[in-house]
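Customer ticket, subject: "Can you confirm the structure for DNA-binding MarR family transcriptional regulator?"

Message body: Hello, I'm evaluating your service for our small team and ran a test protein. I'd like someone to confirm that this is what the system normally returns, since I don't have a reference to compare against.
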Amino acid sequence: MDGARATDGVIADAARDPMADWPTGRLLSTASRLIEHTWQQALDGIGVTHAGLIVLHLLDSGPASQKELARRARVQNQTMSRTLDRLERAGHIERIAAADDRRRHVVSRTPAGDEAWLAAHRLEADVFPDLPDESALRSQLLAIIRSGESARWSPEDVEPA
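Agent reply: Thanks for trying us out. I re-ran your input and got the following:
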C-alpha cells in the first residue's frame, strides 16, 4: 500500500473520530491509563492492588523467594518487599523461612490469595472490552514490549517464557 492510500483511511477515520489521527504512542498511552484506572477500581473490590495481582500471578507457578519475585516482576527488591507486606497483611500470601537458609523466605499464596487470583480472572472479562482478535492484539503488544525491553531490562531480568 502506498503512503497516500495508507493515510487516506486515517484521514477519513479522523473526520468521524478525532482520535483516529492521534499518534500510536498517544493511543497506547491513553488506552493504558484508561484500562489501568478501570482495572484498579475492579481490583479494589477484591482487596488487591495491580502490583499485588502481579505477585499472585507469579506465584501461580509455585512458591518463590522475594528476590526471585522481584526479578521476574522487574522491580526493585524493596518495591517487592512493600508489595509482599500488603499481601501478607491481607492474608493473600505467607512467607516462611527457607529450610536451608533461615534468612531467606519462601513466599506462597494462601487459600485467600488463590480466591483473590480467581476473582481477578473473573473480573478481567468485565473490565476489558471484547475484541475481534484478542490474540493478535496480545502478539502486537508483546512485540512492542519486547522491542523496548532491551533498553530497559538486562537479559537476566527477563522472565523465562
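A couple of notes from the result: The helical segments are 3-16, 24-44, 50-58, 66-73, 77-89, 111-127, 134-152. The domain at 23-127 is CATH 1.10.10.10 (Arc Repressor Mutant, subunit A). Feel free to reply with more questions.
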